[in-house]
Amino acid sequence: MLILGIESTCDETAAALVADGHVVRSNIVATQVELHAKYRGVVPEIACRAHIENILPVIGESLSKAGVAPGDFSTVGAIAVAHRPGLIGSLLIGVTAAKTLAWALGKPLIGVDHVHAHLYSVVLESNRQPLMPAIGLVCSGGHTALYRVGHWLDVQLIGSTIDDAIGEAYDKVATVLGLGYPGGPILDTLAASGNPRAIRFPRTLLGRESLDFSFSGLKTAVLYHVRGVPRRGQNVKSLDFRPQPAGQQLHDIAASFQAACIDVIVEKLKRAARQTGAKSIIIGGGVSANKGLRAALSNFHVPVAFPPLQYCTDNAAMSAGLAHVYADAGRVSDLALDAIPYSQFAR
């Protein structure tokens, strides 16, 4: 069974065709990084306009690369779309395209949760199924959350961020340091040649058994280290009297910041595995591409599964793959499927 997946939850317009839940026939992504770079973050209206321009060409290219002849959808068994969570305007573009195709072609429509699909991305191409029950971690610019995964249709949220997502913290620290956007890959590269013990930034663990995350204090600690601690009554925005870090100092700050992030993640994964008796760890989302995180978990006490690098950031292959699981279980949507800004696993 070949499923066409569509992704437009944030700032990536994507389409993919996946067979049997893991064989990726095509995976086309139109990125918007350049459009949002000067704003150091995603601007929803700009994202929506770009999705409208990109959605049809991306779907067409995905079909072509998968060898589906123009106008011949006989080999496509269903249309899948990530309809939650995300930016509501962006979601509507993909959902409308998927519903239109399903209606026009008489194909089943399958709506999937974008966060759920990030967890499933570890299966793509290899079809190596993680040992269950597992702990799932989705870490990206918009999400940092832990899940207990009994099987692919048994997912329970057990911990989440109370403020910034980890990818958001990376972007904000990169801004503080005068670096580009997105901040994650830049800081990861700088950290590789820095001293992670140069600065002892805080590790916020929120209690001895908590599975929740907090990265806001760490981000502020980097700001104060770089620009100084504000005096009473002084606006934080005026903290610019110190020279911007450069050279080895910049590498050391990046390495020390990344070490603090990774230490927190590793500790939370240990807690979650202990509390649930998990047999493996599943990591998904854009930050799962981080080299420092992958190295830190290379000798974890239970197996750790990461997606192939091309499926770490937002893509449609993960939604099309997960849709096979939904289809096998008879979980098919109808044309009343709506765009929903929050995850089905939200508290």
SSE topology:
Layout: E1 2-7, E2 12-19, E3 23-31, H1 33-37, H2 44-65, E4 76-84, H3 88-105, E5 109-113, H4 114-120, E6 134-139, E7 144-151, E8 154-160, H5 166-176, H6 183-191, H7 216-227, H8 247-276, E9 280-284, H9 291-296, E10 304-305, H10 317-328
Parallel strand pairs: 1-4, 4-5, 6-9, 9-10
Antiparallel strand pairs: 1-2, 2-3, 6-7, 7-8
Give a quick account of the main beta sheet: strands, pairing sense, barrel closure.
5 strands, mixed
CATH architecture of the largest domain: 2-Layer Sandwich
Instruction: Report the uncertain regions.
Output: none
Number of helices: 10
Could you please say which CATH topology of the largest domain applies here?
Nucleotidyltransferase, domain 5
Termini gap: 34 Å
CATH first level of the largest domain: Alpha Beta
Mean pLDDT: 95
Overall geometric form: globular
- How many domains make up the 3D coordinates? 2
Amount of helix: 25-40%
Structural class: alpha/beta
Q: Gyration radius, to the nearest Å?
A: 21 Å
β-sheet strand percentage = 15-25%
* Element order: H for helix, E for strand: EEEHHEHEHEEEHHHHEHEH
CATH superfamily of the largest domain: ATPase, nucleotide binding domain
Count of beta strands: 10
Strands of the widest sheet, in order across it, are 3-2-1-4-5
Structure summary:
The protein is an alpha/beta fold and 347 residues long. Helices cover 38% and strands 19% of the residues. A hairpin with a 4-residue loop joins strand 6 and strand 7 (144-151).
